[in-house]
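Justification of computing resources. Each target in the renewal requires a structure prediction run like the one illustrated here; the chain below, 323 residues long, is used simply to show the kind of job we budget for.
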Amino acid sequence: MSDQKININKNKNNFLNFNENFSLNINKSDKKNQKKIEIIQKIHQKFSGHFKNALINYLNKPVDVLFNATTTQKYNKFIKSINNQLISINVIFSDALKTNIFFFLNSILVSTILEIFFGGPGNNKFLKKNKKFTISENRTIQNLVILMMQSYKKSWDINNHFIDMKLINSDTCIQTIEFDNEEDVLVSSFKLIFNDIQNDFFIIFSESSLEIPNVFYKKSRSQILKNEQIEWKRQLSNEIKSSELNIQVKFSEISISISNLINLKKGKIIPISCSEKLTAYVDCVPVFSGYYGSLNGHYALKVDNTISSSINELKKKEVSHNE
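Resulting structure tokens:
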């Protein structure tokens, strides 16, 4: 019995240690995510300033853009809060975050911007009854999204971060979003203010993007440029390697006088001699030598060795890369 009690106590201690370690890991994860959310909030604060300046230049009117907060919400709860509005959902993919970013613009905001652009008061507070945006409103949405993307990229760059963005789609159908109803999403809310009239818009993305390492930590601009150059060289190398070239092989070369050339007639035989080893050329540059023969009823050339130093260098790099 005493042995059994000792084992139970040991298991109990192990269970307590497990709970303690598990709790510590959760706390560490929460602290890391909280730090990343704080970084996002700083970025979005800068975004509101950049977007404000971009809108002032676009509208030639004094507007203001304020950042409210970034919160974690269940996706279905967020959708319920905007469910009765016609929404322009703009899907932007970010390779840095490995996820889609969504710009939510409601119909009142779009109509307000359109009114201001054409010199109106911008006080349209009525929900749009139509099921879709007009051509002018869609053009306004396109311009707003371009300004938002430019401002968003600039905001990350100022914080010594780098983010790439590409517009994937603009739609009004909420069902096109891939989030699960119970999925946690990061919702950043903003206010557009003009003559004391306020309109909300949102930027959201999945909370799972917070788990991606090194995305939210500082990276020097020189390192970013270096990585871009490496990627550019890699793409260029792949494109060059996939290019098609014409290979020419001279089987024989003879000299003939002009008088004999003039006297050539059908059926005339010209004796030629062909060396056993031939050289292949690309754009008059010798690249390799080899021996000719036949393969499956066609003339063929068996490569003996490469001649061009650049090809040998490429082969060495390819081997070292594969290793």
